[in-house]
Amino acid sequence: MYKILALNKISPAGTALFDKGKYAVSLEEAAPEAVLVRSASMHDMNLNPELLAIARAGAGVNNIPVEKCSKAGIAVFNTPGANANAVKELVIAGLLISSRKILAAADWAKTLKGKGGEVGKLVEKGKSDFAGPEIYGKKLGVIGLGAIGALVANAAASLGMEIFGYDPFLSVDGALSLSRKVRYVKSTREIYENCDYITLHAPAAADTEKMINAEAVARMKKNVRLLNFARGDLVDDEAVIGALKNGGMAAYVTDFPTDALIGAEGVIAVPHLGASTPESEENCAVMAARQLIDFIENGNVVNSVNLPNLSMARTGDFKVCVIHKNADGILTQITKVAADANRNIENMESKSKGDYAYTVLDVKGKSDGFAEKVGGIDKVISARVISK
Asked: How far is CA 156 from CA 91, 160, 293, in A?
């Protein structure tokens, strides 16, 4: 029986996928083999030796100590694209509320309560204070053309916007998913200098932290409207607040409120609603559950942030799944274990990702002591056997 710890409330659509004869899913488990998590921080958690994998029901993994997990031989999964449509819809809403002053107008309309027959006249008199531009025909810069950014670019193009897209790591599949109306540019500077609206969809990393800083803002068009539904760390709050005060920026819409941003003039801060739809929560939970099950039962890796994707059918009597450092000579030592035990390797596959690698062997014969011998090889972090 595998024990699965759910650190957050996970949609039943995901937890129902775990066979009750093989898995026990609980909100309290001291020594789980796997963890399902949404937003709960795991940085201060003790990672028990039995832990095989963590699946984040969402795209970002900044709440998970990924490097610590890698060193311990724990696979970390996320669910890219599962919440993409939910975030896309919120970004489109952000474009509109940043332009048309819809929220401020709705709040003002509430003040007319009790005015009786005067409401109509007051509305006509006061509505000019909330005028704003249409998005049709305006230029939108999309920084990051992954699952969400591509959907945003295509949707905004269909609404009549002129799209500038930037992504230094744009994949072939990503490029093919883009509308022909999207103009791909080779630098953020082209976006800053040309676009009336800019939306961020870059990952949180050392080289993207505060990528929107005073220098970047200074290059943007006057009265630009900035949207951030990706990660709060991408933006220097003080730089944006300063630009809003001096008239350089018209509005900042963010899904990541901070104390500095709340109440600041020109800031529309919503409480991290990007993936807060029942459809998105179900999609993420289902994808996360399936990835955990496939890894635990078959050793297959799909959508891991610290291990390479690797899937291999089973034809032998057992699989050996090995997480190890990406170093020379390790594969030779692993296969030698099979040779010394007079075991035939039916199939083998090995891939690397950064400093780490993942190797799977499909072996004929008995598995007695195999994992222990492979696990004893220098620079092998973990080894486990999955039998038929």
From this structure: 10, 7, 37
Q: Which one-letter amino acid corresponds to residue 6?
A: A
Residues 289, 281: Cα–Cα separation, whole Å: 12
Q: 């129902």: which residue's tokens?
A: 16
Q: Which two tokens stand for residue 301?
A: 């890796």
Tokens of 84: 């993409």
pLDDT in tens, 19-48: 999 999 999 988 999 999 998 999 999 999
The pair of structure tokens assigned to 111 is 């003040």
Same domain for 245 and 221, yes or no, is: yes
- pTM confidence score: 0.82
- The answer to whether residues 172 and 146 belong to one domain is yes
- Cα gap 18→7, rounded to integer Å: 16
156 and 253 inside one domain: yes
Query: Mind listing the pLDDT tens digit for each residue in 184-214?
Result: 999 999 999 999 999 999 988 889 999 999 9
Exposed / middle / buried, residue 19 (Cβ in 10 Å: 0-12, 13-18, 19+): exposed
Beta bridge partners of 385: 320
